[in-house]
Amino acid sequence: MKKALITGATGAIGEACARYFHDQGYFVYLHYRSNETKAKALQKELNNSEIIGFDISNKEEVYAKLEGIEVDVLVNNAGITKDKLFFWMEDDDWSDVIDTSVNGTYFVTKALIKQMISNKKGAIVNVASVSGLVGNAGQTNYSAAKGAMIAFTKALSIEVARYKIRVNAVAPGLIESEMTQELDLKEMKKGIPLRRIGKPQEVAECVFFLADKASYVTGEVLNISGGMVR
């Protein structure tokens, strides 16, 4: 049975990815940082799964928790937002977002890629954002973090291709989640050619395609924004 690790599995996109991979026959490691209750509830629904709790920005925790774990697919999904215009942004608003998305992606990938190299197979999908492609006001920290993930994807894909490991990214636009419930979606939909926001499962389908099906695709970023970013 193939195995996948989904970081941030208690978030909207992470949960959708966990369910999708599980439904496709994968054993799924469900990472969470603080929401153990939701992680356990999800594990109860997914027979072939295991929860792993750690702070993704803490190098020691990451390496200790992932020691000995082997996966066929890594989905670096965990991320946070602390949106503010740059003038009012606090130092912690910047560092917390960077530590989670950039450093967290580095630590988890570093912990798992050695076994992928040894096995000469594997796929990594990094969940970035259209904010990392085009930027967004009030999100200099988030845009910087997701832009870094995209650059990381492209560079790493070149390094590990010789070991038959593929590294790709997805860049979702507006996707239904706890965060989008606070937004004025009626106005935002006007800027999306498909005239709606996306569903988490639509992102999960793309992540699975890149991880499991797209055997001749690496170093790419798949834009999932309903045409909002072109």
Judged by helices, strands and strand pairing, the structural class is alpha/beta
Helix content: 40-55%
Order of helical and strand elements: EHEHEHEHEHHEHHE
The mean pLDDT is 96
How many beta-strand runs?
Answer: 7
Please tell me how large the radius of gyration is.
Answer: 17 Å
The coarse silhouette is: globular
Pick out the low-confidence regions.
none
The biggest sheet, with number of strands, parallel, antiparallel or mixed sense and barrel status, is: 7 strands, parallel
Query: Which sequence of strands runs across the widest sheet?
Result: 3-2-1-4-5-6-7
Query: What separation lies between the terminal Cα atoms?
Result: 38 Å
Strand content: 15-25%
What is the count of DSSP helices, taking H or I runs of 4+ residues? 8
How would you characterize the overall build of this protein?
The chain has 230 residues and is an alpha/beta fold. It is built from eight helices and seven strands, in the order E-H-E-H-E-H-E-H-E-H-H-E-H-H-E. A seven-stranded parallel beta sheet has the order 3-2-1-4-5-6-7, sandwiched between helices. 44% of the residues are buried. The mean pLDDT is 96.
